[in-house]
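> example.struct
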């Protein structure tokens, strides 16, 4: 049964190794730390995670939140991130963040932009099928 948690104005729903995240407004350090605690539990249970992130209402990510994500990403396995509904500005910001994470962690980080959750789920499903040992 999926678990859903409210974090400030944001929500996260966990379905096995997949986190479905809806971001509304700015993402502060406290919010990020709570997300990462949930992600830790997913990684502990499944050995890694994937995320479908609805960013249609995302404001900004504070520098402290970005640093926390970078530090966490260094030691955790990510199958990929699928971003839903990113505007041009949000897509640019997220691309820079993903590239920065790749640079600072020296690890590949798969990210795709999708129009709908159904498209994101389809792409995630395809990626899971391509991996011999799913998370």
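> example.seq
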């Amino acid at each position: 049964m999926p678990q859903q948690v409210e974090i400030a104005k944001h929500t996260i729903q966990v379905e096995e190794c997949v986190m479905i995240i809806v971001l509304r407004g700015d993402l502060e350090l406290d919010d990020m730390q709570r997300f990462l605690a949930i992600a830790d539990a997913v990684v502990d249970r499944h050995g890694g995670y994937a995320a479908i992130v609805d960013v249609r209402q995302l404001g900004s990510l504070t520098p402290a939140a970005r640093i926390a994500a970078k530090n966490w990403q260094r030691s955790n396995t990510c199958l990929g991130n699928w971003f839903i509904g990113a505007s041009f500005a949000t897509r640019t910001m997220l691309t820079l963040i993903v590239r920065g994470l790749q640079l600072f962690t020296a690890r590949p980080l798969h990210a795709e932009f999708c129009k709908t959750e159904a498209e994101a789920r389809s792409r995630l499903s395809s990626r899971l099928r391509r991996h011999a040992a799913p998370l």
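> remarks
The chain has four helices and six strands.
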